[in-house]
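URGENT: need a sanity check before tomorrow's submission.

F., can you look over the Uncoupling protein 2 record below? I want to be sure the sequence and structure line up before it goes out.
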Amino acid sequence: MVGFKATDVPPTATVKFLGAGTAACIADLITFPLDTAKVRLQIQGERQGPVQAAASAQYRGVLGTILTMVRTEGPRSLYKGLVAGLQRQMSFASIRIGLYDSVKQFYTKGSEHAGIGSHLLAGSTTGALAVAVAQPTDVVKVRFQAHAQAGGGRRYQSTTEAYKTIAREEGFRGLWKGTSPNVARNAVVNCAELVTYDLIKDTLLKANLMTDDLPCHFTSAFAAGFCTTIIASPVDVVKTRYMNSALCQYRSAGHCALTMLQKEGPQAFYKGFMPSFLRLGSWNVVMFVTYEQLKRALMAACASRDAPF
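Structure tokens as predicted:
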């Protein structure tokens, strides 16, 4: 057995809720530069055609993007929007991951044998609910990450000022800009990520290929990250473009997607795929491994506290 030993008592909903948010924050701290590189690559060339965009591309590849940002904006640019990112994960991941098992049990009426439909329904529900709560933090995070500061002023002076400025200039609807594509993205991401992780982990355990410890969690998380990136990339690019857009640049998320297709071609929907996979793959590994260990550690702490002397 590697890591904390599983307890006899299953984790409570509160332990899952707190554990998911904490694990997601830890994963964000480690993988945030990859997320910032992904955002820069996704928005690159959005006001140009495919030929002009390729000729004038400022960022090329994951490493090239990171090195260019460090050279022109300094190392701190890789962590632009981190505060909003951590605020997002603490509210967002706590709901979409922490409540997933509880919602799944609700749809199966407590049955231990949940079908694929129940997994997908639970993933879609918690993903959509999480977006409804945490959307403003996502908007601010993307705005910070997308803004190149080389030689120019800051778009926003602080995270708090960003919330206030967006609300003042664009109305409160501006803080929920891109909710539709984000709901679509996170329904897809949650289903691909959590359901794939759940199914792969269950398959490995039932086939006695692995035991319920770190190697099993690592393998399941990495595979879930790869599947999720392939499925969710097109929606993710549209979400990023739309949330970062100027007022009235796009009429809707659908208009944003159509404009991308007309100006840049279908390949635009997979811009930033490699950093997306590197980020989502590594994020999944760190998050799920940490989450599984936190659940066990918190339950062990509760059992130790309640045990008689």
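My own read: Residues 273-306 form the longest helix (34 residues). The two ends are 27 Å apart (CA to CA). If you see anything odd, call me.
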